[in-house]
Amino acid sequence: MTPPVSLALQARIADDANRPFAEELQAALAERPRRISPKWFYDAKGSQFFDRICELPEYYPTRTELSILRSRAAEIAHQIGPDAEIVEFGAGSLVKIRLLLDALQSPRRFLPIDISGEHLRGAADLLRNDYPGLEVTPVVADYTRPFDLPARLPGAGRRVGFFPGSTLGNFAPDEALAFLRQAARLLRGGGLLLGVDLVKDPQLLHAAYNDAQGVTAAFNLNLLARANEELGTDFDLQAFSHAAFYNAPHRRIEMHLVSRREQVVTLDGRHHVFEEGETLHTEYSHKFTVDGLRAMAARAGFGIGPVWTDPQRLFSVHWLPAAQ
Ligand code: AVI
Questions:
Q1: Which atom from ligand 1 is nearest to the alpha carbon of 208?
Q2: What is the pLDDT of residues 34-89, one digit of tens each?
Q3: Which of 95, 87, 93 is nearest to 112 (CA)?
Q4: Whose CA is nearest to atom 4 of ligand 1?
């Protein structure tokens, strides 16, 4: 016999894997203004949408950062030095880490950190095959919370963090500072290679988050589809629309899901009323100035190293030495 929907639903929410998402969404729907962490974008479908975003003509950050890493690889490798241990925050783009590894002199170890063990294992296996001399040590952890790294390898060079893609911009300012403070502690005596998007013409920014093909809209709305699938919510996807705009005083793109009409959404038996025009805020994407980023890094305990940008100064890659 098929169990009643409410029982099936309770079973799904009670499922340990779904509980953190259910708890955070419940809290987000109850607060005003409503805000949920962008980390919930990245289920398998969301990650595919993000890969497509990175290829869009309007979305300049990925290709611009890649061009900087390619053209400045030798200078970056010089800062890092030989026999380094590279710590990547997030099991990110294999293209970017390969660019770095290919430029480095005898890198000793690669430590990707990700909350998803599955994601990590995939990234680790692919790299092990192609870099036989490199030790790959995946670390399953939420890098936005306190955690520790395995002890350094005897005789290894600097421990260097790699945080590309302007993911730092997705944190709220206090979260970004907390992340940098933790990175400075973990990378003592080494440094952080950090890619961040720069403040620019708001029209360019607007286009990057409102692409003509609607991929960013689908990425945003997928959060609701994921909730329906995993948590049994009853979001009507037709009744919400994607909104992304540049908030100039805060130097950030804000993404929201806007209710197109008055409606009620139910999660685990709790009803949440959306008025027409009410939003669920899903993402910040902060844009930085070089000086602003350096000031924040200094507050977190980093020194100031070289910064590399593209000729149009769309994006920046920073070398931030970490004190001993
Ligand atoms: C992952 N992150 C840096 C992207 C960004 O630009 O903030 C996520 C994204 N959101 C919409 N488009 C891309």
A1: 12
A2: 999 999 999 999 999 999 999 999 999 999 999 999 999 999 999 999 999 999 99
A3: 87
A4: 167
Pocket test for ligand 1, best of 36, 53, 250 (most atoms within 8 A of CB): 53
Secondary structure class of 148 (helix, strand, coil): coil
pTM: 0.94
Q: Which of 307, 311, 316 has its CA nearest to residue 79?
A: 307
CB 81 within 8 A of CB 157: yes
pLDDT digits (tens, 9 = 90+) for 211-251: 999 999 999 999 999 999 999 999 999 999 999 999 999 99
Question: Which one-letter amino acid corresponds to residue 28?
Answer: A
Strands 270-274 and 135-136: unpaired
- Dist. CA 14 → ligand 1 center (Å): 30
Query: In angstroms, what CA-CA distances link 161 with 135, 182, 238, 277?
Result: 16, 11, 42, 41
pLDDT of 263 strictly over 60:
yes
Per-residue pLDDT tens digits for 6-20: 555 555 555 678 899
Domains of the chain listed by start with CATH number: 7-36+204-286 (no CATH), 72-200+288-321 (3.40.50.150)
Angle at 169 between CA 188 and CA 66, to 5 degrees: 80
DSSP class of 82: T
Residues with CB under 6 A from ligand 1: 53, 61, 165-167, 169-170, 209, 216, 283, 285
* Closest residue CA from atom 6 of ligand 1: 285
Ligand 1 centroid vs 146 CA: distance in angstroms? 24
Q: Categorize the per-residue pLDDT at 3 as very low, low, confident or very high, splitting at 50, 70 and 90.
A: very low
Q: Which of 41, 56, 170, 246 to mutate to test the pocket of ligand 1 (most atoms within 8 A of CB)?
A: 170
Rounded to the nearest 10°, the torsion over CA 151, 152, 158, 164 is -50
Closest CA to 224 of 91, 86, 75, 45: 45
